[in-house]
Amino acid sequence: MSGFIVVIPARLASSRLPGKPLADIAGKPMVVRVAEQAAKSRAARVVVATDHADILAACAAHGVEAVLTREDHASGTDRLAEVAAKLALPADARVVNVQGDEPLIDPALIDRLAALLEETDAPVATLAHAIHDAADHFNPNIVKVALDKQGRALYFSRAAIPYARDAYAADRSALPAGLPVYRHIGLYGYRAGFLADYANLTPGPLEQYEALEQLRVLWHGYSIMVAVASEAPAAGVDTPEDLERVRRLFAA
């Protein structure tokens, strides 16, 4: 798979881990490690989209292409839209959004997402994997997605969807056999033309209550195609403890 671009949004500010994109991992900033992983995919181009000159300089020092964007974007998707416009990407160009705190991202997942976007007429594609633990199903910090028979997202929620009414009335300690429960993987693919439209979409109440940006897409009537991965990807870096875990992995 070729002909797609990876864009990595990287904001300097982080409430739980200040300066996260520049955190050192085995001698290189985290955002550079993410870009190096993304470059192992079949992407034609990997670009970091940042709001800070220090990240821009760090990328330049390691030969990573980066674009300086506005500081006031409400979301990573809005930042992607600015990059797509700055790079003058054609409307049918495929853009894969890789988070700047995923230094262990599997390049095969990036390729899977780019291929899915090419195979569908949906303007947005994403990934999920099966949940096997009832505790995860009820965990509001784990985002679930319900799918239709074509694999398009019906809804994303922090709640336990789909909810097995009768089975859970009797026992909520185990998932009922055959219940299609999927955890959303926060990796997205977009058509560049949709990114231009997204920048003009107003947030809807579902997005605001669930605090899930992808619900804006569904609220405005666009579809999101979902591929089910065989297993969960490696965890990203959200806390100092996560950072130390990743540092140990790179050191090993």
**Large-scale geometry:** globular
Helix content: 25-40%
Q: Number of DSSP strands?
A: 11
Range of strand content: 15-25%
The averaged pLDDT comes out at: 93
Biggest sheet, open or closed, and with what strands and sense?
9 strands, mixed
User: How many angstroms does the end-to-end distance come to?
Assistant: 31 Å
Order of helices and strands: EEEHEHEHEHEHEEHEHHHEH
Oligomer: single chain
Determine the structural class based on helices, strands and strand pairing.
alpha/beta
Helices, by number, come to 10
Poorly predicted tracts of residues: none
Alpha-carbon Rg, integer: 18 Å
Characterization of the model:
With 252 residues, this protein is of the alpha/beta class. Helix content is 33%, strand content 22%. The chain contains ten helices and eleven strands. The strands form two sheets. Strands 1, 4, 5, 6, 7, 8, 9, 10 and 11 form a nine-stranded mixed β-sheet that branches. β4, α2 and β5 form a beta-alpha-beta unit. α3 packs across α7. The longest helix is centred in the middle third of the chain and has 13 residues. The protein starts with a strand and ends with a helix.
